[in-house]
Every structure is written in C-alpha cells, then in structure tokens.
Write a structure and sequence with these properties.
Layout (H helix, E strand, L loop, with lengths): L3 E5 L27 H13 L4 H8 L20 E2 H4 L3 H6 L6 H10 E5 L3 E4 L3 E2 L15 H17 L3 E4 L15 E8 L2 E2 L4 H15 L4 H5 L6 E8 L3 E8 L3
Parallel strand pairs: 1-3, 1-6, 6-7, 7-10
Antiparallel strand pairs: 2-5, 3-4, 7-8, 9-10
C-alpha cells in the first residue's frame, strides 16, 4: 500500500475571503529558509502597491487597472484562507470542495500539492492571501517556474519519495517540478481529440473521486470510476503511466 499524493494546478481566479495572522511565506510547505518566497512576494507586493498602473496590468494580465484594484493592497495584510479554498477556477468549481465531507476535505488538505505561480509548491491546507499574478509573468525579470524548480526540486523529491504520485497539473505547471519516481498522468479526449480547457473540469472531478475513494495503487486508480468518462488506454513509459479517458456523450 502506498500513500498517494496529488499534484494540482492553481487558478487565475481567487476568492477574497479569509482571516488570520499576517502572511508569512515561511509558514508554507517546505518553509522559506533561503528567502526565495519572501523575496518574490516582496517584489510582487512592490508592484501591486505602486502607482504604476501599466505595470500592474502587465503583472496581472488584466486590461483594466480598475479590475486589479482589489489586489492592489499590501499582500502581507490581506486575509488568509487554505489554498484549496482560495482558488476559484474551473477545476475548483468541479471539485466542489465545500460539498465534500470533513474526512474527504482533510484528505485533500493532507495529500494535495498546488503549484502556485507566486509561492511554488504548497500544501492544499496552507493558508495564503489572495493575489493576482498572470501565469508566466516574470518578477524583476525572474523566471519564477525555473527558480522554484532549481531550489525546491530536492525538497519535493524527498517529500514524494516512496509515494504514489498522481499528476493532475496543466502543462505549464510541469515546469515547476518533474517527478523522479513513478507517477500517473491523465489525458482527456472527446471524439478522439485532446480536450484542453475543459480538461480542468475533469481534473477537478478526478480529484473529487480520489478524495472519496482513496485509491492506494495504480490498479485502483485504473479501476476507479468517475461519471462521464471512460478509460480507453493505459500507456507505460520509463517512470510514467498515462491514463487516457474518453469523455462520454451526455
């Protein structure tokens, strides 16, 4: 029996609720002993609290400065909420975390890592403030994904050693970390063609199924049923198993 860990993507949209103490990057998974998280957060904060509207729009990817105003506050003073409740995109809509029972919610908090484009790999239960950083944007010309991959991969290797890894991340977030041990990925097809945007929804539904059924092996994952999709192929590579699903007509 293997302990299962899920790698998951964040979302562009964030909820704004929360409470708690002043945000501390050192409170996140793996801490911040080298100060990388604190440095990136301060660089982000400096832009978002500046009067430079063009730079705020660039960083957030928003066309109108007014749409970014709710994030143009000192991030260290913004309310905190668990990451799994902070993100509010398609995958999280379909996960429906709030409707899971307490045991299922705790399972997700204990076993899911979300790859934030500001904070790197964090636990689903880690408390974070709302932020708005467009995927792929640089801070002070720093490639954030490359920086986290360089400095946090060893932490992740150690944390995930001996675990069964289910990688539900979107392609971009694979840049933050490449698993060294065997892991499972999933691809979704409709009428034989790869689904991109709506793959987010199925990743959310798969995470929900995992929390409810708690599989402990690749075979249990293979036999796990999720309404609306059917496993049609299993491909095995050197350290990766790819499960390919067909989305069934509704």
């Amino acid at each position: 029996m293997q302990n299962l860990k899920i790698l998951f993507s964040p979302s562009e949209n964030k909820t704004l609720h929360g409470s708690g103490d002043r945000f501390n990057p050192n409170s996140l998974l793996f801490g911040d002993s080298d100060g990388i998280r604190a440095d990136l957060t301060k660089k982000y904060n400096a832009i978002m609290t500046s009067p430079d509207e063009d730079e705020v729009r660039r960083l957030t990817g928003l066309k109108k400065y007014d749409d970014a105003k709710e994030f143009c506050k000192d991030i260290f003073d913004l309310p905190l909420a668990p990451a799994i409740e902070r993100y509010d995109g398609v995958a999280f809509d379909y996960l429906k975390y709030a409707t899971l029972d307490k045991d299922e919610q705790q399972y997700i908090q204990d076993n899911t890592l979300i790859f934030s484009n500001l904070f790197g790999a964090i636990g689903a239960g880690d408390k974070i403030p709302p932020y708005k950083l467009k995927q792929g944007k640089k801070l002070d010309n720093i490639n954030i994904a490359s920086l986290y991959k360089k400095h946090f991969s060893l932490y992740l290797d150690t944390f995930l050693e001996g675990k069964l890894i289910i990688d539900l991340r979107a392609g971009y977030y694979e840049k933050f970390y490449t698993p060294k041990t065997k892991f499972v990925t999933m691809k979704f097809l409709k009428n034989g063609k790869t689904v991109s945007h709506w793959a987010k929804a199925w990743r959310g539904l798969i995470l929900r199924s995992i929390a409810q059924k708690k599989p402990n092996s690749i075979e249990e994952i293979v036999h796990m049923k999720t309404d609306g999709i059917k496993l049609i192929e299993k491909k095995e590579f050197s350290n990766k198993v790819e499960l390919i699903y067909e989305i069934e007509e509704s």
